[in-house]
Amino acid sequence: MLQPTCRALLANLAVGVQRKIRTTNAGFSFFVGVGNVLGYASGSYSGLHHIFSLTRTKTGDVYCAHLKSCFFLSITLLLTLATAAAVYVKEKPLSPQKSTAAANAEIKGKSERMDKH
Question: How would DSSP label each residue in the chain?
């Protein structure tokens, strides 16, 4: 769900520079791998439903409670990271003249690179 949007963001940030593209793809792949390992580790831990005691109900068994606990854990992590990014990442607003000039320069640069190919 998040991987295509993250990869598109990284491609937009790299803006056609091969070294940046290579570095962002390596970092992205590394964090995908770390996420896979952590997901597997949390799925293999059989006592996870004890941490979130609300997930165990009369109608659901241990596996259902374990799955709900994994969902709660991932939602909590996603909300925490999104909040931290919103609080700590500061945007520098561009003045209208600078943003127009920057957009024109970017379009010109892209068209020059396309003409070379």
Answer: --HHHHHHHHHHHHTT-HHHHHHHHHHHHHHHHHHHHHHHHHHH-TTHHHHSGGG--SSS-HHHHHHHHHHHHHHHHHHHHHHHHHHH----PPPHHHHHHHHHHHHHHHHHHHHH-
Domain boundaries, the chain: 1-44
CB 72 within 8 A of CB 55: yes
Tokens 């969902």 -> residue: 71
| Residues 6+ away with beta carbon under 8 Å from 66 | 43, 46, 48, 49, 55
Closest-CA residue to 113 (of 2, 14, 10, 36) = 14
- Residue 100: pLDDT band (50, 70, 90) is low
Q: Do the beta carbons of residue 7 and residue 32 sit within 8 Å?
A: no
pLDDT in tens, 47-97: 877 887 778 888 878 878 888 888 888 888 889 988 988 888 777 766 666
